[in-house]
Amino acid sequence: MAVVVIDHPLIQHKLTYIRDKNTGSKDFREMVKEVAMLMAYEVTRDLQLQDVEIETPVTKTKAKMISGKKLGIIPILRAGIGMVDGILQLIPAAKVGHVGLYRDPETLTPVEYYSKLPADVHERDLIVVDPMLATGGSAVAAIDVLKAKGATSIKLVNLIASPEGIAEVEKYHPDVNIYVAAVDEKLNDHGYIVPGLGDAGDRLFGTK
Ligand code: URA
User: Phosphoribosyltransferase domain location, by residue (predicted)?
Assistant: First the structure.
């Protein structure tokens, strides 16, 4: 398992605005989308290419096109939705599947309440997105859902991860590489990432 910290200056600059509590929902939403798009550039770096014959206005030539498996973007509801459009801007042909999980108040374990996935999800390279990798419980459960459907190629993309969340994904899904813009210090007693950005879902959708 690899953890790739994408520390491009544009991503780090925008992440600072995203973290700032004075950034309102409109700007927060826009910048989450932009950072997701910039991260997708790096997350897709290993896509396979094939040679195709084309004709430029000058001559026939061979050129490169993406080949290999089709892609799927899997937002974990609800905050993951904020990252979808940015990635779709770079990969418009990707299909989007949703996985919804809530935390059982007694057992504190994630419970699947919704999932709607492309029928051929098992044949796709999947990019699971959620802005925050906190305890890792939701990410592990969402990946469980995908693997139960036969998925074998999964990447996890988060804006901010905690060391605890990374360790949890590594424990249960060592085959899944994690792409993040930052690894923060720790989780607090309420399961929030410190320093983090607060509740990503509330900040995206203006709820409290
Ligand atoms: N989910 C969030 O939205 N923020 C955190 O800090 C942790 C989990």
Answer: 5-207
